[in-house]
Amino acid sequence: MGCGIMGTVGKVIAVAVLYGAFSAGAKPKPNIVHIMVDDLGWQDIASHKLDGNPVYETPHLDRMTREGRRFTQAYSPAPSCAPSRVAFLRGQHPVNTEVYHVSGGRIPRAWHKNSDRICPYYSYGLPVEEPMIPEALTRAGYITAHVGKWHAGGKSAGYPFPLDQGFDFGFTERDGRHKYYNDEDLWNPEEQNRNTFFGAWASPGMEKRLSVFATDDPNDPYQVNEKGRPFDKPLDLVLGFMEKYKGQPFFMNYCPYEVHGPIQTRDKKRFDNYVNKLGMEYPTDPKKTYYDLPGHSDPYYASMVDTVDYYIGQVISYLEQTDDPRNPGHKLIDNTYVIVDSDNGGVHRFTDNAPLKGGKQNTWEGGVRIPFLVRGPGVQAGSICDTPINLIDLFPTFMTMAGLPRDEALELDGCDILPLIHGESDTAFYADGRERESLFWFFPWDAHMSSALRKGPWKLVRHYGAAKRKPDVRLFRLYAGERTDDLSEARDVGDQFPEVRRGLLEELDQLIAVAGAPVPFDNPTAKNADQAAVAAMPNVLDLGSEEDRVWVMLESGNGKAEIENARLLYTLNPPPMDTIGGNREEWLSAPATISQGRVEAVMPPGATHAVFSMVDANGFLISSEAMPAVCDVGHHAKDSELLANGFAYKPGLYALIKLGEQAFATTGDKELKAVLKAAKAKYAAEQIDKKIMCDAIRSLRTAIRSQQGTPEAAHPLLNRFPTEPLF
């Protein structure tokens, strides 16, 4: 992982030969093109509109519906982008990836002091050591690419990047070492005006969205083509990659930035079309919004749906018109699976998911039910599948497409749905042969904080209590036999079917418990908190540290609840180690041990601050240092700056010195020895100066990283923020 595309081609070809990708007489492995549109709603494709009166024009997706297979009950793993993308790439439910929302990597605390529940800690992205789809496909001889939105890494510019996670070719949304990859065939440095990183989606800001339409000026980076369509660099990269590597099996993970906000378009012709189609006066104020209008009524959003449909059409047209070098006499489309889906439901401010309830950011059907189309070899044209599926199913499905055997070590949660794609089955089966009977979601985000389970005709939604919503459990019957019953989740039938409600709730709680995912914690400052339980909550008595060990002492006995769960949360990059002032401060997790009245842990090397996050027997969240509610300080406040103690600097520096000594024992490097001596002197100083401590940690990290070939140099915490010069 981590190598550029020019260095991987020989490796990929060698692997392809090893796996018979070019064996004479063997059926060539199919190409796989996965297109994940950002925030595309279930009703946004014209031919899928249940009322038969579409506003958005999607001729290419409509044709794909006619020529491929539509899954009417496809679901995203989460109602938000980051957890869905991570779950898809990893093939696991969010309860197992531990990525629940895009705002992860912070110390858990109440959103408001009166919030009933507190969201548990969760990660911002997936660690580099976790396997992803491209790593498996590479073993089958595929060359792999990711173009477009990533959102599967950490806060350091998106690291780990696609290339770190096994892709041969990567193009992602943040600055850093993998923004400009080493393939000038696709990214021509001489075409600076065309190298628009976000493509036509790039936002000029709301105040300019009526004045930045693309033109036919050759100097316009979005210069319109003969069809009047603005140039889009990500689409250009997708087409260029397929053209360059059409002679071997390829996997393209194409993730357009559309139709995510900011809601704007560079295509004036299409915008004018929708203004007229909706019978509106042409807007004169670029900040005018259409949030309060019913149905599909935003001409900017309509233009974005129209645009992404055009992108998809260009990809399919290329595959239809291009000869397949591995399959003489055929076009690439004849041996390519094309899958189109969305990372979550549509945003109800901009589109309308009706008859589904809700939208992105909640577990109602509108937030998790998504469009899903597939076209490819063996796929019956115009066919429909009503079996519920989930995007986590694509990892094992792609493996089967590539001819790979089952790999238990991957610990995949999804089902191989290739038999459903081919119409050979209407049931999804796990790898061990068990029939899948249910799908579930765990979304403990502050604003919605819920979980849900879909089983047969039933949908159970459990709200833990967040914002102004009180805890509740609701049961809906989405279907009655072959017909729809309550897709809008408008009628809670839990009282009519108490046994169904109880059984589904037990199953949902068990699924979450087996994964070890912590459910939202009780907030002791809430008005509705059980005061007897609050009185039993153990108070923090003292914090302490010695060398690299840190601990917290709490009340114990005398009617005080005992601590049942604990972990150490720590950061490596406080504001002094971040060129953008701490906006990327990320908190990670380490194990802690519990004994009566004491919780302790070993500080990770180079950690600058830490806090113990603990849960008592009554379910209350306790921090080793009191944390203010998010609303009291603003969600942009840096956690490290809210801590009075935080075990600041010295324990983490000590742990880093130990790591450096291990490296020195192997290499005997004189420069490392000098840096270690300086770090020890700074550790011994009585006064803690954060600049001096940060300089010492940074210098020692650099010195250890220079000991190439040692395990210490490759330590993940020394390489967590590779694009940050202050790290």
CATH architecture of the largest domain: 3-Layer(aba) Sandwich
Looking at how many chains there are and whether they match, the oligomeric state comes to: single chain
Distance between the termini: 22 Å
Within the CATH hierarchy, at the fold level, what is the topology of the largest domain?
Alkaline Phosphatase, subunit A
Low-confidence stretches at least 5 residues in length (pLDDT < 50)? 1-24, 173-178
The assigned structural class equals alpha+beta
CATH superfamily of the largest domain: Alkaline Phosphatase, subunit A
Helical residue percent band: 25-40%
- For the CA atoms, what is the radius of gyration? 27 Å
Task: Give the strand line-up of the largest sheet.
Answer: 6-5-7-1-8-10-2-11
Cofactor: Ca(2+)
Domain Sulfatase N-terminal: 30-403
Protein name: Arylsulfatase
Region (Disordered): 707-727
Structure description:
The strands form 7 sheets. This protein has an 8-stranded mixed beta sheet, with helices on both faces. The protein has a 4-stranded antiparallel beta sheet with strand order 13-14-15-16, covered by helices on one side. Strands 20-21-25-24 form a 4-stranded antiparallel beta sheet, with no helix packed on it. The protein has 17 helices and 27 strands. It is α+β, with helices and mostly antiparallel strands. The protein is globular and about 75 Å long. The two termini are 22 Å apart. The relative contact order is 0.12. Helix content is 25%, strand content 17%. The chain folds into 3 domains: 5-110 and 119-438, Alkaline Phosphatase, subunit A, CATH 3.40.720.10; 449-519, Arylsulfatase, C-terminal domain, CATH 3.30.1120.10; 521-727, no CATH class. Mean pLDDT is 92; it is low at 1-24 and 173-178.
